[in-house]
């Protein structure tokens, strides 16, 4: 199973960075992960048990990549299609993950979009992420015409929630934010009890990637969701990661979930190795000596591999 999943993920793209991003989407789309995200980000699910929340997640999970083999565990991802939202004159956008959550006893239906965002820095993105979130929410609302409501029956609009997992935060910035409609009286005292909570964006800020976030000096987040996501997306060994997720967060290691964790660790290791080799090649080009490079913590094997790759292209 692991080799099959790895082949599917790697074949989806020739770029290991893109393959890693693709696998993160599949990993986050596992119902065990989704149920925990819903519990700690959406008010309607906060008092529910994880098992009950899993039962609320519909069988319409969509991922913005090609389909994989069916027949996976009911505890895992269900199915996926192309997640495009096409409005004439406005172009096409692709959601990372999109699905429907139902609370049948309360007759509640919520349309959910989940995005895995490597960077939330506007200087790197070229825009402020908050504006993109608002755009996604607006599209999820407008797309309901002729599907969730018809003609002028606007009271049949369903709630939409767009959840963004942002992975580039500093040591003290683990946090969860909400963006939504806010009603206030600017003049007079008219009373209106109707609560406008149709649209809500949630930003989950996790610490990941740089500055050795997972060293012993970094304390575990006090938020259960953030600490779980940081563990899930960390660069830890796959065996240790699976043990912690099972022992501390109660996850069942299905073949699908185990496979995705192993894939992510393998891809992460490949990306790190490639970056180290590329760094050595840049230093060789800059006439930095072998002794100086090795003194920076690079290994003899890495140096030889970089040197061979560099001169093979000459």
Explained architecture:
- With 314 residues, this protein is of the alpha/beta class.
- Helices cover 41% and strands 15% of the residues.
- It has one domain.
- It contains eleven helices and eight strands.
- The chain starts with a helix and ends with a helix.
Strand order, main sheet: write it out: 1-4-5-6-8-7
SSE sequence, one letter per element: HHHHEEEEEHHEEEHHHHH
Largest sheet: 6 strands, mixed
How many DSSP helices? 11
Q: What's the rounded overall pLDDT mean?
A: 81
What count of structural domains?
1
Low-confidence stretches: 1-15, 65-74, 77-82, 210-215
Structural class: alpha/beta
Distance between the termini: 40 Å
Give the tally of β-strands: 8
The fraction of residues assigned to DSSP E strands is 15-25%
CA gyration radius, whole angstroms: 22 Å
- Assign a percent range to the helix content: 40-55%
How would the global form be characterised? elongated
Protein name: PD-(D/E)XK nuclease family transposase
What is the topology?
Layout: H1 2-11, H2 16-28, H3 31-41, H4 50-56, E1 62-63, E2 84-87, E3 91-94, E4 97-103, E5 108-117, H5 122-125, H6 129-142, E6 159-166, E7 175-180, E8 199-205, H7 224-232, H8 238-249, H9 255-285, H10 290-295, H11 300-312
Parallel strand pairs: 5-6, 6-8
Antiparallel strand pairs: 1-4, 2-3, 4-5, 7-8
């Amino acid at each position: 199973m692991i080799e099959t999943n790895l082949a599917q993920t790697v074949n989806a793209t020739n770029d290991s960075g893109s393959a890693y991003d693709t696998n993160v989407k599949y990993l986050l789309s596992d119902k065990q992960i989704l149920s925990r995200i819903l519990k700690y980000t959406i008010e309607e699910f906060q008092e529910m048990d994880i098992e009950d929340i899993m039962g609320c997640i519909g069988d319409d999970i969509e991922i913005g990549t090609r389909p994989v083999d069916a027949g996976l565990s009911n505890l895992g991802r269900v199915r996926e299609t192309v997640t495009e939202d096409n409005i004439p004159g406005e172009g096409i956008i692709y959601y990372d993950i999109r699905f429907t959550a139902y609370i049948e006893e309360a007759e509640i239906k919520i349309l959910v979009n989940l995005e895995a965002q490597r960077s939330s820095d506007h200087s790197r993105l070229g825009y402020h992420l908050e504006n993109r979130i608002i755009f996604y929410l607006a599209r999820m609302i407008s797309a309901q015409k002729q599907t969730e409501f018809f003609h002028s029956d606007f009271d049949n609009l369903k709630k939409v929630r767009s959840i963004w997992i942002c992975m580039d935060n500093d040591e003290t910035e683990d946090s969860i934010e909400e963006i939504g409609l806010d009603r206030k009286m600017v003049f007079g005292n008219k009373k209106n009890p109707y609560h406008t909570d149709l649209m809500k964006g949630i930003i989950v800020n996790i610490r990941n990637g740089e500055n050795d976030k997972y060293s012993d000096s970094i304390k575990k987040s006090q938020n259960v969701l953030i600490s779980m996501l940081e563990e899930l997306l960390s660069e830890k060994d796959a065996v240790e990661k699976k043990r912690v997720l099972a022992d501390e967060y109660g996850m069942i290691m299905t073949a699908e979930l185990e496979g995705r964790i192993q894939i992510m660790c393998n891809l992460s290791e490949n990306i790190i190795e490639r970056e180290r080799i590329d760094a050595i090649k840049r230093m060789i080009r800059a006439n930095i000596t072998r002794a100086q490079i090795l003194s920076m913590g690079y290994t003899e094997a890495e140096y030889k591999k970089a040197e061979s790759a560099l001169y093979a292209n000459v």
